[in-house]
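Progress report, Aim 2. The chain analyzed during this reporting quarter is listed below.
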Amino acid sequence: MAIYLPGTAEDQPLALDDLTPREIVAELDKYVVGQAAAKRAVAVALRNRMRRQKLSPELAEEIMPKNILMIGSTGVGKTEIARRLAKLTNSPFLKVEASKFTEVGYVGRDVESMVRDLVEIAIDMVRDEKLDEIEDRAELAAEDRLVDLLATQGTGGGASETHAPDARQGTPSVVVLQISPEPAQNNEQTIAQEGIPKGAEGQPELTVVPKSDAERTREKERLRQQFREGKLDDRSVEIDVRDRNMPQFEIISNQPPEEMDQSGIRDMMSGLFGQRSKKRGMKVADAFEYLVQEEEQRLVDMDQVTRIAVERVEDSGIVFLDEIDKIAGREGGHGPDISREGVQRDILPIVEGTTVNTKYGNVSTDHVLFIAAGAFHVSKPSDLIPELQGRFPIRVELLALTIEDFLRILTEPRASLVKQAVALLETEGLKLEFTPEALSEMANFAFRVNEQTENIGARRLHTIMEKVLDEISFHAPDLVKPVEGIAPSSKVPALVERTTEKGVIERFVVVDREYVQQQVAEIVKNQDLSRYIL
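Predicted structure tokens for the chain:
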């Protein structure tokens, strides 16, 4: 469960090598309430990873990561701890449910797909980093191409229309005239002054001398300035775009789709049929975005990106195996649980270290950190096969949330449920306030319902909050702009008026302890209703 706590202005990003286990725990404390044991375990695992990188290659190869098994009910912070740890280290991170995998031979996903997905995530990460590095260069190159197109197509204005000599008039008198690029140039006046003969239809017979390099440069600079000022955004320009309509083909194979190098086959097909392009007219602003993307693709070396991504996965990848308790259990021989132990056997080589074949090459999982998590309400960790149990030497139990924890979750996060509710109703022009006693009552109700029914952790606060604000959210527009003939609902607190320091009268609704009890208390008392509503 994501529990965001407010940071301070003095917070400074810390270098990864300088993060001690105590500082790592302090960073995690900003986002997750409590769970000190789990934070200590992941902090030590991260610090050991940094220590390993400072060893000699021979010794570092022998040191394997200490995988972690988190045991705790839903909504207490298991996933958020692993996710924040990955962000802290800028490591490729994949969260996957163990229950989605099936034993080889059954319909479902192969366990090796988690490694392929992790590589894809790493490639996206590295590509984004490279795009940030070359962003300015790509924009300059795209701007140059766009200005050239505008100058060639005459979007900036200033060139007069010219006509070829008419063969019906015999041998025409050809006059050499250089047309100015400035729109204000009166070319008709120039024609009259020079005594240029006109054809039968009264049009001048001209031959236009190409502009000099200096004039072309001045025109491009003028267009560039207009583009940067946004004066050309609504004009149209014609550019060459790649034709994305590739021939449709189907591959019949006994391999699952994720194992086939479909992008390589697509590249081969595009090479066979050629990179076709077509002319397409679009606004200047849209054309600029398209050209920037083309330049970014040209400047980014995807071979280097792939190489760095694979190395990052092998050295610092993190896989979060959620719901591992759902595949715990010994072979029953029949029913839907028949493949549970088979999935465990398939996961075992991935966790202990193996080489997985991907479309980007072979990827070793020897030093990938695996963090498994599960509630273990029905099963227990000892129900896992012994070989898999041994691959998770560090086990931590996450504690259930207390009333104080619920209150902190309601009040402290940057985007807490209270702040979200207030912001949503402000869009209707209605201000909402919660008294401290109301928040304490909501935290108390969430704790009681979790104890009486299923414990879903901090997620219970979502249902409590929605039930408390149900009537207010429904009648909010009518409270702000009363409708004639419709009386205000008696279930909604009366509007309170308050004058601000600037003399502005504000109207708002106050949610107090009595209103929270009115909305929720009866349902909490009735356990049957609690199971269905809360």
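The chain has a mean pLDDT of 76. The longest helix spans residues 113-153. These observations will guide the mutagenesis work planned for the next reporting period.
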